Amino acid sequence: MNPFGRFDDSKREYVITRPDTPLPWLNYLGQDEFFGLCTNTAGGYTFWKDAKLRRLTRYRYNNVPYDLGGRYIYINDGGSVWNPGWKPIKAKLDAYECRHGLGYTRIIGQKDGLEVEMLFFVPPGENLELWKVTVRNKSKVAKQPKIFTFQEFCLFDAANDMNNLQRTYSIGEVEVDGSAIYHKTEYRERRDHYTLFACTRPVDGFDTSRDAFVGIHEGLHDPKVPFAGQCTNSKAFGWNPIGAHQINLNLAPGQEETFSFVLAYVEQGKEPKYDSLYVMNKKVGKTIVDKYSKPGAVDTAFTKLGTVWTDLLSNFQASSPDPHANRMLNVWNQYQCMATFNMSRSASMYETGIGRGMGYRDSNQDLLGFMHMIPSRARERILDIAATQLSDGTCYHQYQPLTKKGNAEIGGDFYDDHLWLILSTCQYIKETGDVGILQAPCSYADQPDAKTDLLHHLEVSIAYTMKKRGPHGLPLIGHADWNDCLNLNCFSTEPNESFQCAGDVKDSKAESVMIAGLFLYASREMAALYDFMGNAADAFRMRKGYDEMLNVIETHAWDGEWYRRAYDAAGTPVGSKENPEGKIFIESQGWCVLGGAGQNNGRAKQAMESVHKHLFTKNGAVLQQPPYSTYHVELGEVTSYPPGVKENAGIFCHNNTWINLGWCLLGDGDRALEYYLSICPSAKEDQIETYRSEPYVYAQMIAGKDAVCFGEAKNSWLTGTAAWTFVSVAEGILGIKADYKGLSINPCIPKAWKGFTASRKFRGVEYQIEVKNPSGICKGVKKVTVDGKTVTGNVIPFEAGKKVVKVAITLEA
Ligand code: BGC
Ligand code: NOJ
């Protein structure tokens, strides 16, 4: 039992029944270009496209309490002042419920017979969010509550907002027009956009100065105006502009009133900037407010949001004997994949939105769980990412979503980055059949005018790894590979340096076995792609590269019972029985096995068994063992963390999914499900006080067995775990995978499963799949019928023009 909430599977909602959750439990609003973060107490903020460069509302990270600032509504009911979402006042509520749904959050609070419901969402395709508020008098007496909204405006550049107060305190400007508050700081200079916060009905007052509404020495828990019961109609001039409205209601017993607020990002487009001196032209903003002031407009938009999500999720639905797998796969995992696709690692409760933008390796991997939902957006993203690669193969490690330009501060030289582009591109072509993407024009960051195409990038990527190799013939690691903290060229003794950026990689000799495994996978993908294109010579060339790397791995990376992780700059093995700590790492087991190493010599099985013996726990497999007890200058950040945390032997959920896939490859469906459930948030509800994070989305990390807080999850939402778990369940356990010529079906399920059903849309055709497992095995497709006709092999050939295809599969040894 989880005392804080429960899944409402039929409504696709998570219901939080107490506001004092073990950590703020977050949801995202928006799925296109306008986004909001919204916690179960209505905390969070809003931005358009880019959490750093187009922030609309203000949020202070690492605040006290953790989550403070957001979409606040204050109620003054005859002098009793409270918030329906509990915070910031934290007055005791008679009833509270928060429902996080797909793209919306609904919070209901009740006190002294007055119920206030707030529904927050972003209408599909719009650059605005709506707050629909309903106030119900459930008491037996008439009530005259006063309702106040409050949120703080932020500079569009959120980094500047936080650190350049001598400027920000002097530039704040607003205009008020009826129920609409226009935040126009910096509009006078180089911007043609502004933020609008308006009510859909006439208001009884407003405030735009935080000092007037909250006070100088007061906090959000005891703001002046809501307690005084009267707005001051303040006009912000510098300092901190806010948006606050006042609405006075008069409610008979049983009576309710509903009204809405629009928070919008508005671009002027072709409109003139000003109507007259200092008076901005508000035409575009007014059109938006008018649209949502019409009766029914807000509800229509909300209904449309539901339809959008039903359609998106209908691309993949399954019914298996495992309830956790079902609800996560069918709803929450796909929903989280939308968030990681949109946010990469930029904006969450753990990522401030002013640091990382889109990660090169991260966003490529995020695509693997998104592709089947909206392939056209995946296509655009693949080309954007590729364009941040340099002509020699180096990739910018991150780029800003607004500018699509690489982030020079962190630069490149993470020698795994380029290979992930091959995985996302091949998966995209398999999903869509759109092999034409390979010829899409795509230049390089250092040669913006180059007339190159996407295929050129894939070739450059393969060549880059082949070229950048070290003394054993293994790929060089650069600043780090997937494991950002394995910094073998860093040698940092200066506390203020970034582990990742310090150190010279130019003459580096440190090698990565994980990249070697990833290269096997990527070059095999390239060979299959060339086969599909009918290009035998290039397929052969790719296979030659594959064989060469496989030979290097089997010759230099096998340690006796598992694959080594790396060789450091001095040529000493990392992740070997020779090391006193950090003897075995998870990533090289996952990637060597997935790349096809150890298939004919028993090593794949042995490597996986070593993971089970040394790394697996009831909360997932730890990243390595034993943890490092002291800092090692030659290994970098991995040794900086306390034991059991993050890359130093924490349970990094992302790489657990590669092991799941490894078990599927080896045909052990029992292990695959056991590993899956060990990190599955829905399966953590009965230990939620330990787990602490949201039970509906995967976390990046769960503290490992060496940590004092073993089992505590951190860094939820924005993690590669989302996409890779989708892959490991949908393609690994259920075995349903897009392939060039059709839909491939090769399940690897627990022996006890009698079968499962699934429905998968693929290139416009809906495949209704039924898998039967009469003899209780894990893997082995024996009989396949498609619309009643027997088919050989397990790839259901794609036939355009069909609407529904029925596939029946029987597993047999
Ligand atoms: C974290 C990594 C993360 C990196 C990003 C490190 O401190 O441990 O998980 O990828 O920072 O900069
Ligand atoms: C999180 C980063 O976003 C990702 O790129 C990296 O692979 C993992 N941490 C592991 O270090």
Structure description:
The chain is globular. The chain is an alpha+beta fold and 813 residues long. The protein is 28% helix and 23% strand. The chain is built from 19 helices and 41 strands. The protein starts with a strand and ends with a strand. The strands form eleven sheets. The chain has a ten-stranded antiparallel sheet with strand order 1-2-8-9-10-11-18-15-14-13, with helices on one face. A six-stranded mixed sheet has the order 21-36-37-41-38-39. It has a five-stranded antiparallel sheet with strand order 7-6-12-17-16. Helix 12 (513-532) runs parallel beside helix 14 (587-595). Strand 9 (104-111) and strand 10 (114-121) form a beta hairpin. The chain binds beta-D-glucopyranose (BGC) and 1-deoxynojirimycin. The site of beta-D-glucopyranose (BGC) has 5 residues, from loops.
Quick synopsis:
This protein is of the alpha+beta class and 813 residues long. The protein starts with a strand and ends with a strand. 57% of the residues are buried.
- Give me the secondary-structure category: alpha+beta
Net shape = globular
Hey, roughly how much beta strand do the residues contain? 15-25%
pLDDT < 50 stretches? none
Total strands: the figure is 41
Structural key phrases:
alpha+beta, 10-stranded antiparallel sheet, 6-stranded mixed sheet, globular, binds beta-D-glucopyranose
Record the SSE blueprint:
Blueprint: E1 5-8, E2 13-16, E3 26-29, E4 34-39, E5 46-48, E6 72-77, E7 80-82, E8 95-101, E9 104-111, E10 114-121, E11 128-137, E12 146-152, H1 158-163, H2 165-171, E13 174-177, E14 180-183, E15 193-199, E16 205-209, H3 210-213, H4 224-228, E17 241-248, E18 256-267, E19 274-276, E20 279-280, H5 283-293, H6 297-313, E21 316-319, H7 323-343, E22 358-359, H8 360-366, H9 375-386, E23 398-399, H10 417-432, H11 454-467, E24 511-512, H12 513-532, H13 536-556, E25 566-567, E26 573-574, E27 584-585, H14 587-595, H15 603-614, E28 616-617, E29 620-621, E30 624-625, E31 651-652, H16 653-666, H17 669-679, H18 688-691, E32 699-702, E33 713-716, H19 721-733, E34 736-738, E35 742-745, E36 755-762, E37 765-772, E38 781-786, E39 789-791, E40 795-797, E41 804-811
Parallel strand pairs: 37-41
Antiparallel strand pairs: 1-2, 2-8, 3-4, 4-5, 6-7, 6-12, 8-9, 9-10, 10-11, 11-18, 12-17, 13-14, 14-15, 15-18, 16-17, 19-20, 21-36, 22-23, 24-25, 25-26, 27-30, 28-29, 31-32, 32-33, 34-35, 35-40, 36-37, 38-39, 38-41
Helix pairs in contact: 7-19, 8-10, 9-10, 10-11, 10-12, 12-13, 12-14, 14-15, 14-16, 15-16, 16-17, 16-19, 17-19
Beta-D-glucopyranose (BGC) binds next to loops.
